[in-house]
């Protein structure tokens, strides 16, 4: 998966950097946000605040007695900070945490767990007047905490490295503020151990879809 994501990033950068970008001028010498970015006078930093829906699509990596895991959808606040390496290429650090109820097919309650998946992504931005779509891919390290074991005595989750892909759209309200719509697919897994019994541990993939809507600021 890591090689596939890296290859996709390199391919996108090669294609987009070979495309010519036309500069336009207006009769009254007014510079638009799009023109400013093309001229290199873009803001290097921006931050966003979003409300997100985290919808896991879980499955056991190995079939565990035919049972299917279920992690509930959760709504949570999220912030990110973006630094532009150039007018088109940026790095984004996303921070959020969400709590999910957990059970397996058959009604076995495994309580709940919270996840903290800080994610660092490389993005490519397009410019079309006040619209700025972008795509990206990156890596995350997911921390599991606040476990509630439900119907069993105890349960633990192993922190793991994962990957993410994304697409989104910024819309300028003015030179400082903008609206944002963002979509991410994360590839997150964990080794789950019930009742401190290593012989019963299983690897589960959460692989959540994350959809967010929010507001951002340039500075």
Structural key phrases:
eight-stranded antiparallel β-barrel, Porin, four-stranded antiparallel beta sheet, 219 residues, mainly beta
Structure notes:
By secondary structure, the chain is mainly beta. It has a single domain, classed as Porin (Beta Barrel). The chain has two helices and 15 strands. The protein has helices spanning 2-17, 33-38; strands at 45-55, 59-60, 69-71, 74-84, 89-96, 98-104, 108-116, 119-125, 131-148, 155-157, 160-172, 177-187, 189-194, 202-205, 209-218. The strands form two sheets. It has an eight-stranded antiparallel β-barrel with strand order 1-4-5-8-9-11-12-15. The chain has a four-stranded antiparallel beta sheet with strand order 2-14-13-10, with no helix packed on it. Strand 4 (74-84) and strand 5 (89-96) form a beta hairpin. The two termini are 35 Å apart.
Distance between the termini: 35 Å
- Helicity, as a percent range: 10-25%
Strand and helix order: HHEEEEEEEEEEEEEEE
CATH fold label: Porin
Number of strands: 15
The total count of helices amounts to: 2
Low-confidence runs (pLDDT<50, min 5 residues)? Answer: 8-32
Cα shape: elongated
Give the C-alpha Rg. Answer: 21 Å
**What's the structural domain tally?**
1
